Amino acid sequence: MPYIEATNFQIEFEFLVGGKSDGLNGDGFAVWLTSERAENGPVFGNRDRFEGVGIFFDTYANARQPHSFPYVMAMVGDGKTSYDNNNDGLSNRVGGCEANFRGVTTPTKARITYSASSHALNLKLHTKAWGQWDDCFTIMDVKLPSHTYLGFTSHTGEVHDRHDIISVTTSMMSKGENFIGQRRNNAPPPPKKSGFGWYLKFLAVSAIFIAVIAVAFQMSKKNNMRRF
């Protein structure tokens, strides 16, 4: 479980979750950005009452929820609060989204971007089509520990799945290079000027050109009159 020293960073990983297609599967896996190394425990295979951020890729509903499963959610742990397992983390949730990442043919990926300057963490998912990244959530006021440990754990019970982490890449980012800046860069381009606007500009330039010619002609005429 390596730790990350960079204050602004991006983590991208490819994963695979699947199993028998009989409708019984679980429970999911988690990504951890915490102050301590992972320990065996009840929260998707890790300890409870952690300090840092846990992102849970949940495939099994323990209670009736207003959303469908699989579901991805984040919890910010303070080292004291327990994960609300009976309600699928409902009371702990600070961000989440529905995501059909189980048993799909598209390579399933996730991208976590953290900016210490703005204390913001963003998660994007690649689950629908090649090259299509969709925002899952952005959570604000997140202060990760100075030494953040990155880890992955999974949990199975009476029902089970395969939880494979295929690849992980991490990169350090400059202060200005964060997902907020990327949103600004991805803003739609300004509307194109209409043909009528170009026509008015052409008339204005033509008028100036004619005025210059007229002044030059008048000056030339006066000079010729002086000679005679």
From TrEMBL:
Key word Nucleus present: no
Chief subcellular location: membrane
Single GO biological process annotation from the record: endoplasmic reticulum to Golgi vesicle-mediated transport
Residue ranges occupied by any L-type lectin-like domain in the UniProt entry: 1-173
Gene Ontology molecular function: D-mannose binding
Top-level division of the source organism's lineage: Eukaryota
GO CC aspect terms: COPII-coated ER to Golgi transport vesicle; endoplasmic reticulum membrane; endoplasmic reticulum-Golgi intermediate compartment; Golgi membrane
Protein name: L-type lectin-like domain-containing protein
